[in-house]
Amino acid sequence: MSEQTHLNTTEERVAAGAAADPWYSLYADRTLGMKQSEVRSLFSVVNRPEVVSLAGGMPNIAGLPLDFLAELHARMVRDRGAKVLQYGSGQGELPMREMICDVMRPDGIEADPENIVVTTGSQQALDLISQILVNPGDVILAEAPSYVGALGTFRAYEADVRHVEMDRDGLVPEKLEEMIATVRAEGKPIKFLYTIPNFHNPGGMCLSEERRPQIVEICRREHVLIVEDNPYGLLGFDGDPATAMRTLNPEGVVYLGSFSKTFAPGYRIGWALCPTEFTRRLVLANESATLCPTTFGQFAVASYLQEYDWYQQVKEYREVYHARGQAIQEALEEYLPELEWTKPTGGFYTWVKLPEGINAKDMLERAVANGVAYVSGTAFYADGKTGADHVRLSFCYPTPEDIKEGVRRLAKTIGEEKELLGLA
Amino acid sequence: MSEQTHLNTTEERVAAGAAADPWYSLYADRTLGMKQSEVRSLFSVVNRPEVVSLAGGMPNIAGLPLDFLAELHARMVRDRGAKVLQYGSGQGELPMREMICDVMRPDGIEADPENIVVTTGSQQALDLISQILVNPGDVILAEAPSYVGALGTFRAYEADVRHVEMDRDGLVPEKLEEMIATVRAEGKPIKFLYTIPNFHNPGGMCLSEERRPQIVEICRREHVLIVEDNPYGLLGFDGDPATAMRTLNPEGVVYLGSFSKTFAPGYRIGWALCPTEFTRRLVLANESATLCPTTFGQFAVASYLQEYDWYQQVKEYREVYHARGQAIQEALEEYLPELEWTKPTGGFYTWVKLPEGINAKDMLERAVANGVAYVSGTAFYADGKTGADHVRLSFCYPTPEDIKEGVRRLAKTIGEEKELLGLA
Question: Rounded to 10 degrees, what is the CA torsion of B321, B323, B325, B330?
Fold first, then answer.
């Protein structure tokens, strides 16, 4: 782990930075708040072969049709090289945006390619939306807990993130209303609600069908823009995607999608489906950030979607993750039956509540020594402190056998930690 | 051109925006300053087949070895698909960073891959460097004129850009010293000097060998970081690249490179070679913006560099641009001998001074009606007003015959404009 994770106060970091870095005094205010995420810090540990990683969110792409893709790439370069290797549009290439409309159709979305902006992964869409909307100190509403990568980006724009409670059915409408009222009473502007309604990262749960119109209606009434992040929506174990909130109020929702989980992350192609006027802002921000997203990657993904039965590939991914989701469920039942966790019904994650008195962050070193890695719940709260009573376990990448062994090691670690703390 | 270019004051834009866009009141302060660049606004015009475009900066990639590349891509996907299609490192893949060291060697740079950060084009490096360094109102020094894409990004971070005079030998050291003193007297922080020393965009000139150590020394003394942007350095018509300023003070210069002009822009792969401690900041900002640059694109570019005689390809590009640079030089001598322009010795551009009294922005509509497009000099100044006495002509993309015809049409347009204004 980097030295940074041990330096908690701004003062400590200023002192450490100033000593080592001649340019430290020139950094912008926002830079001092940026730190390595707990997830990223784990990467070196996670890559050790003896450690079972239940930490990372890498998709399992072993099942991709590589021979087909090899031929497709070769043909694309040979026949359309001068186009696919050239600069493109800041909004994204039209064939890509048209195919994105197809990909959103299972969610019930009927979109116009004119309202789509292609970005360098949906992470960049999050970054640019924050750039467009957030002045330092502005409020962003997010679930409690929320996606670590979004929180890092919000921090870079010096947002004041307020977490809103979830239960098994996802974000709680009454809690959302309460939080909006609280923030409004403070006189602070609310810039948007950031939400992951399907197979939440890290929570694992889905927003119920009943609550979707309720959340949309609250936000419409309160003039709060919704940023609906949906990387996992197609990856429910039993198929049928839920109703996208975007369908309930197209001019009130920015919908984010990504090919990183349903196809492959290596091209870095994501998108935002925007309210009409917002689209133009996002295109300008996109051009300012990168001129245009990768033309090559866009044509590769668009050609794959056009020429391959991509929905069949999605179904195969579902089976891969279903088997792994079942494995972690069974392992938790076997080795840690006394704990509570989100029963996986899709996506990549389950959120596990630790026994009273155990701190996920403190326990991590012991877990890694025992050969298993997880992400401490603290990574998923803006303050970096809340959430120490939970861990996020990812079941997307390891084999079912490794998942079982990983959970066994986690149980052993928890047992040791309880004993050490006199909790046994 | 977009409606935006006709709305000059913030008040006008607020009024127009608020009427059309329900989310307008939520935009961050920085967003109100972002507007479509004059170059981007021209895109629709430029693509009309009857117009000779001397406006765009699209590289001429017709000469790329597409059969070789097709086979290389196919092999890469077939043999290493699970790696090249997966997420990668926020700093960029090591094989890519190692090959980037090779590509900088002709500039005299001996770099450590540890100090390189791969970005989504060098545009994104500019964006992230601004994010790391610039608080609203901070000063960035840039040449007069400067690259339109950089100015747009600096505007997004609400920087106060101060232009420093150039002559035929590039940035004038005494003028740089004067500007630093002026800004310091105002009590404003200077965050960096942004400079394009080789085949300047839009100026066309090179910073002389004599001045390079002078500029570096002034910045070292004044503790001003240098951002050395070098997309065209290898594309001098007579070979031999100039001394990179980076070599003169490695801890004082962030050097930006790109494969967009020396190979192909479609992958969106650029890089920053950083002072040691700055590297870590840039990696964090990169992760926050996009998680990682495209793994696929990096492996494609790295494989090309490893397996192809890339420097021979650079030499072929030089010949392509040399022929076009000569064509524009000859056409200007033939049709507009009374004007002054930068004699092209490399790169993509020449900077032409118009006859006294002619306004490049006002003349553009007539030029397009006459079948030629250029970029008004006003695009290359932060205030959007200075520079109306110049046009940038790009000679990179059209054929030599089209270039000649384009300049003939420009001469006709200038003649008509002079007559109309009573200047003839």
Answer: -170
Residues 6+ apart with CB under 8 A from B67: A78
Please identify among residues 122-181 of chain B the ones whose CB lies closer than 8 Å to any CB of chain A: 123-124, 127, 131-135, 138, 149, 152-153, 155-156
Run of H or E residues at A414: helix A400-420
Q: pLDDT for B42-72, tens place per residue?
A: 666 666 889 999 998 899 999 999 999 999 9
Chain A interface, mutation test: which of B79, B84, B87, most A Cβ atoms within 10 Å? B87
**At residue B6, does pLDDT exceed 50?**
no
Q: Find how far residue A284's CA is from the centre of its chain.
A: 24
Residues in a beta bridge with A349: A394
Burial class of residue B52 in the structure, from the number of CB atoms within 10 Å of its CB (0-12 exposed, 13-18 middle, 19+ buried): buried
- Quick check: B16 pLDDT over 80? no
Which residues, numbered 257 to 276 in chain A, qualify as contacts with chain B under a Cβ-Cβ cut-off of 8 Å? 260, 264-268, 275
| pLDDT at B201 exceeding the cut of 50 | yes
Judged by CB atoms closer than 8 Å, whether chains meet at A26 and B133 is answered as yes
Mark which residues 64-103 of B lie under 8 Å from A by CB. Answer: 64, 66-67, 69-71, 73-78, 81-82, 84-88, 90
Sign of CA dihedral A115, A294, B244, B116: positive
Cβ neighbours, 10 Å, residue B61: 22
Residues in chain A closer than 8 A to B264 (CB atoms): 85-86, 296
**Residue A153 in contact with residue A125, Cβ under 8 Å?**
no
Vertex A248: Cα angle to A242 and A252 (nearest 5): 120
CB contact under 8 A, A297 and B17: no
Q: State how far the alpha carbon of A212 is from the alpha carbons of A217, A221, A246, B129, in Å.
A: 9, 14, 10, 40
pLDDT surpasses 60 at B5: no
**Alpha-carbon separation of residue B20 from B4, B10, B27, B30, B419 (angstroms):** 13, 15, 14, 19, 41
CB of A342 closer than 8 Å to CB of A414: no
Q: Within a 10 A sphere around the Cβ of B156, how many other Cβ atoms?
A: 24
The 10s digit of each residue's pLDDT in A135-178 is: 999 999 999 999 999 999 999 999 999 999 999 999 999 999 99
Going by pLDDT thresholds of 50, 70 and 90, the confidence category of residue A9 is very low
User: How much is the average pLDDT of B253-278?
Assistant: 97
Cα–Cα dist B161/B144, whole Å: 10
What is the distance in angstroms between the Cα of A281 and the nearest Cα belonging to chain B? 8
Stretch B337-347: mean pLDDT: 97
pLDDT of residue A288: 94
The SS3 of residue B402 is helix
Pairwise CA distance, residues A126 & B259, whole Å: 26
- First-to-last alpha carbon distance for chain A, in angstroms, is 30
Contacts of A124 in chain B (CB under 8 A): 120, 289-290
- In whole angstroms, give the CA distance from residue A116 to residue A170: 27
Strand A170-171 and strand A190-195: the pairing is: unpaired
* Burial class of residue A375, CB neighbours in 10 A (0-12, 13-18, 19+): buried
**Cα–Cα distance for residue pair B94/A59, rounded to 1 Å:** 21
- Is residue A11's pLDDT more than 60? no
The pLDDT tens digits of the residues spanning A345-392 come to 999 999 999 999 999 999 999 999 999 999 999 999 999 999 999 999
Check CB contact of B22 with chain A, cutoff 8 Å: yes
Residue B271: CA count within 13 A, CB half-sphere: 27
Which range is least confidently modeled, A29-38, A319-328, A360-369, B398-407?
A29-38
